[in-house]
Design brief:
The protein is mainly α and 378 residues long. It is built from 15 helices and five strands. It has two domains: 286 residues, Fic-like fold, CATH 1.10.3290; 71 residues, Arc Repressor Mutant, subunit A (Orthogonal Bundle), CATH 1.10.10. A hairpin with an 8-residue loop joins strand 4 and strand 5.
């Protein structure tokens, strides 16, 4: 199949509405566009550089969780959640205002779905089964938990509009889903066809979003599929590419590019958009890892000035790389130290310029590792 000749699909008449039926994607793909060759080369180069840094940064697992939380927060924000990064870092629902807990729960579920899925890849290949497991985790205790979590839909869904009659887009009929999802899964693993991995995941993301196989949560699972695919194929060792940040920043162009494939068969434009997103995100990821490395050298040197408090100070610093916010009470519990000792340690970190007060409150104050935190919010 030539990318430039991609047939968008057909509409099938159902009872009082028409559903969209895209063609299967498990086939060889070629293209004539020189810009796709160039963008693929650039994206592959920067993905390789990002992966290389993730392999040489000491204790890289400490920093990956921030990448995962950033991806969860921005992917969920595309769907309309209002959870900020400092709230996404919070693990206790009691610390979140009641009106924000539903949004917060969706973000925390995304973090859990990502972490579990990456762990599952050690024993289970990327598959529809894995995506269903991720979907079940995503929906647990959140909005949409009654919409058959962990199962492909057995009824028609739609995008936009109040009913099927005025929907903006109607995905394939549920009876067509099993064959199309099986075809997509085969596309991920068919080694008899030559398709560069970044082209394969670009097409896969489009196909997944068009199939919309779940009753809810399709956007988030479709974006979760991107790092899962890259990790499963060995392009990344860790899920350190948060493409959702670029997609959220260019949300209108993101949806327009997907729609252009369905309406005009313009798969080439979607692939260009996707490769630019991967390339820009990978370049930013490289800069982030470089900044983390330099920041770690500086901060480690700073805590070496704390004399007999160095041991606990080093433990606090390492904990801040995993969660860059801390309160005096949580620090006392975490390090099994007295409250006055925790207060003094936070004060010392403030003097060093590592910690800054975040809440503006007199009591129950929260402090954050400002320079590190801002690497994931700028």
């Amino acid at each position: 199949m030539k990318i430039e000749d991609f047939p968008p699909g057909i509409y099938k008449q159902q009872f009082q509405y028409r559903s969209f039926a895209p063609p299967p994607v498990c086939c060889s793909w070629t293209w004539d566009s020189p810009d796709i060759h160039y963008l693929l080369s650039e994206a592959s180069r920067h993905i390789g550089e990002l992966n290389g840094l993730s392999l040489i940064v000491p204790d890289v697992d400490r920093f990956i969780q921030m990448h995962v939380i950033k991806e969860a927060q921005t992917s969920s924000r595309i769907e309309g959640t209002q959870t900020e990064m400092d709230e996404a870092l919070e693990e206790d629902p009691e610390e979140i205002s009641p009106e924000k807990r539903d949004d917060w729960k969706e973000v925390r579920n995304y973090v859990e779905a990502m972490n579990r899925s990456i762990q599952r890849l050690q024993t289970l290949p990327l598959s529809n089964r894995l995506l269903c497991e991720a979907h079940e985790t995503l929906m647990q205790g959140a909005r949409g938990e009654k919409k058959t979590p962990g199962e492909f839909r057995r009824s028609q869904n739609w995008i936009g509009g109040a009913t099927l009659a005025d929907a903006v887009f109607v995905p394939p009929h549920h009876e067509d889903l099993p064959a199309l999802m099986s075809d997509l899964e085969a596309f991920w693993h068919d080694e008899s066809i030559f398709v560069p991995e970044l082209i394969r995941i670009a097409i896969s993301h489009y196909q997944f979003e068009t199939l919309h196989p779940f009753l809810d949560g399709n956007g988030r699972i479709g974006r979760l599929l991107i790092p899962l695919y890259l990790v499963s194929k060995g392009l990344l060792r860790q899920p350190c590419l948060y493409v959702s940040a670029h997609l959220e920043q260019h949300r209108a162009a993101y949806y327009d590019a997907l729609t252009a494939v369905r309406t005009r068969g313009d798969l080439a434009q979607w692939i260009r958009f996707f490769l630019v997103a991967v390339n820009e995100t990978a370049k930013k990821g490289v800069l982030t890892f470089q900044a983390i490395h330099q920041l770690r050298l500086t901060a480690t040197a700073q805590v070496q000035t704390l004399g007999k408090r160095i041991a606990n100070a080093q433990l606090l610093l390492e904990a801040l790389y995993i969660k860059p916010t801390v309160s005096s009470s949580s620090l006392a519990t975490q390090l099994s130290i007295s409250q006055p000792t925790a207060d003094r340690m936070i004060s010392e970190f403030q003097k060093l310029g590592i910690l800054h007060e975040l809440t503006g409150r007199r009591r129950n104050r929260v402090f954050y590792f400002k320079e590190y935190y801002q690497l994931f919010t700028s």
